[in-house]
Amino acid sequence: MKIVTICGAGIGTSAILKVSAERALQRLGIDADVTATDVASLALEAEDAQVILTTPDHVDDIGRTFADVVVIDNILDQEELVAKLEQALG
């Protein structure tokens, strides 16, 4: 399973989301490859992704995708990440 986290530059918010998502997935007992990227590289990185994690300010940048788009309001809130990933992957 592949999950892609995105932000504008691919080094700030997406990196934090990546680490938070990995922790949430560990709690859920789900094995997944989590990749952080920038909006410009998203089409290539998310080509085979099942889930795209983003913040509300980048939803419109995603475009057409077959992946489930999961919007995270608070990237540091583990409970929000666990609940939303469980819903998307369950």
Describe, in short, the structure shown.
The chain has 90 residues and is an alpha/beta fold. It contains 3 helices and 4 strands, in the order βαβαββα.
List the topology elements.
Layout: E1 2-7, H1 13-28, E2 33-38, H2 42-45, E3 51-54, E4 68-71, H3 78-89
Parallel strand pairs: 1-2, 1-3, 3-4
Helix pairs in contact: 1-3
Return the CATH class. Alpha Beta
Whole-Å distance between the termini?
A: 13 Å
**Quick one: how many beta strands?**
4
The low-pLDDT segments are none
Order of helices and strands: EHEHEEH
Q: Describe the global form.
A: globular
Walk across the major sheet and give the strand order.
2-1-3-4
CATH superfamily: Response regulator
CATH architecture descriptor? 3-Layer(aba) Sandwich
Q: What is the number of independent domains?
A: 1
Let me know the average pLDDT: 91
Q: What percent of the residues sit in helical stretches (DSSP H or I)?
A: 25-40%
Largest sheet: 4 strands, parallel
- CATH topology, what is it called? Rossmann fold
Beta fraction:
15-25%
The radius of gyration computed from the alpha-carbon positions, rounded to a whole number of angstroms, is: 11 Å
Number of helices: 3
Structural class: alpha/beta
Descriptive account of the structure:
By secondary structure, the protein is an alpha/beta fold. The protein has one domain: Response regulator (Rossmann fold, 3-Layer(aba) Sandwich). The chain contains 3 helices and 4 strands. A 4-stranded parallel β-sheet has the order 2-1-3-4, with helices on one face. Helix 1 crosses helix 3 (78-89). The mean pLDDT is 91.
